[in-house]
Fold this protein.
Amino acid sequence: MKLLLGLSLLFYTWLFANDMTRTYAPSEDCKACHTQIYDEFSASMHAHSTPQKDVIHNAVWEKHPQNTKQERYGCGKCHTPAADNLNAMKTPGQKAMPDMNNATHQAGISCAYCHRIKSIEHHPVHNTNIMTHTQKNYFGTLEEHMESPYHGIVSEGNEHMKNGNVCIGCHSHKMNKHGLNVCSTNIDNSMDDANCVSCHMPKVQGSVSNLHKREKHTFHGFAGSHFHSDMLSKYVNISVLREISDFIVNIDNQTSHALLLHPLRTAVLKVSVTRDANTTHLQDEIFVRIIGKDGKPAMPWAADKTLKDTMIQANEKRSVSYDFKLMQGDRVDVVLGWFLVNPKALKTLKLENEKVATEFTVFKKESFQF
Ligand code: HEC
Ligand code: HEC
Ligand code: HEC
Ligand code: HEC
Ligand code: HEC
């Protein structure tokens, strides 16, 4: 018994010593020199990934058995990866919960964390990021760079920063204990000239740092379904085809993953026809992936089946036909957008009064004149 206790103590010492070597410089440290990148990052979901800063994450976490039983915060692996007690957070019974007053928790997916990802280990449940142990040495991809007075720059072995592999430790898939893939991004990136980084972090105006003027830097606001979706709308094309007695709206998703990924999302296609001064709103088309159990929608940890999947898939061209005869002079207005939270789940999650969960985001809006 004593030996066992000793051994487990040793194990925990090792675990937490391991945590200690993983302290990450705070993102605020980067602000003085990388002001523009810092400002973009600070407004992104990566800086708001914690229950205290993301009401949608919080609403789901509130219901999660790990929380109701006050066991652990397993979400930390991806949502608070820079936490100074990450191993405790992931360990059942340690009761290490995300804390508003702990800056390493609220740092989210911080600058130093992401820039210290060395490689990705693949696992069936979810992948794992392998981190460097040298603090203040960051992977970068600039073709040539000046020295930084604050940190080292690692340019060797930086391919994962360019080809998007750096993202798939957290974004590739998440399997629950019933073997259901709750959220999956197609990482078998079949597009030659685009990847997670080139689409979600395009080059934009403004210098990389304040110490050396450059025209452009990599956008760190992480365009996505909460913010900056306008930067991604060029990857989805909409066209309208007029037929004899009806018409078809084509949505061409030129993305290597489904239009939306998280099972809470609901995409909506709104179509209306204006003839003379009269506008007719046609029935909304809904795109969702609903997960559930025993035929009913269920929370991600309880679901064991995909009940319905009408989400527009990777590289899919979806045609929606409207039983409406178009005439010369008609204008068809098409709006493609989404609710971050499926309106049917608002009540269960107590999100009815949260703007971010209830408002409709317009992703793409186009008019076609006939
Ligand atoms: C340590 C884990 C982790 C890594 C690494 C990571 N992400 Fe994320 N990412 C997250 C989490 C968690 C969220 C969700 C945050 C939330 O909504 O609370 C997220 C959200 C996003 C979003 C949604 C933004 C929005 O507006 O809705 C995009 C886009 C994104 N990440 C892109 C990337 C890209 C590109 C990379 C690689 C350069 C990357 N992520 C690397 C964990 C990670
Ligand atoms: C393997 C990494 C990983 C783990 C573990 C993880 N998440 Fe996430 N989570 C993500 C990523 C990546 C996103 C962004 C996905 C997207 O926008 O499609 C995300 C997004 C979310 C969102 C949507 C947030 C929003 O603002 O719309 C919720 C809710 C969520 N996670 C809840 C949880 C909860 C609760 C846990 C723990 C029980 C958890 N996640 C564990 C990676 C993870
Ligand atoms: C005292 C100023 C200073 C501070 C503080 C600073 N950096 Fe830098 N950083 C630089 C300079 C200068 C460069 C090189 C820029 C160039 O060549 O245009 C650089 C380059 C980089 C690069 C790119 C390297 C490449 O080759 O692509 C990364 C990544 C980076 N910094 C991350 C960080 C992070 C993360 C922080 C905060 C934890 C930080 N920096 C804080 C000055 C600073
Ligand atoms: C060809 C461009 C392209 C590539 C490549 C791409 N994406 Fe996307 N991504 C999009 C578009 C378009 C959307 C939908 C619009 C939006 O969310 O603003 C999107 C949405 C997302 C979202 C939000 C989904 C949600 O449900 O909230 C996340 C997270 C994301 N992508 C992560 C990734 C990751 C990680 C990779 C690499 C494995 C990747 N993307 C590769 C274009 C791309
Ligand atoms: C989710 C991961 C992630 C986070 C968080 C992140 N970066 Fe980056 N960063 C990248 C990737 C990937 C690249 C390389 C982009 C490329 O090659 O196109 C990059 C490039 C850079 C560069 C190189 C110059 C440039 O503009 O291309 C600097 C400097 C930098 N990041 C600093 C920061 C700072 C400072 C923060 C926080 C304020 C931060 N990064 C947060 C993933 C991240």
Q: What stands out?
A: Residues 25, 29-30, 32-34, 111-112, 115, 138, 140-142, 145-146, 148-151, 153, 155, 208-209, 211-212, 214 surround heme C (ligand 3) (CB under 6 Å). The mean pLDDT is 93. The longest helix spans residues 2-21. The two ends are 82 Å apart (CA to CA).
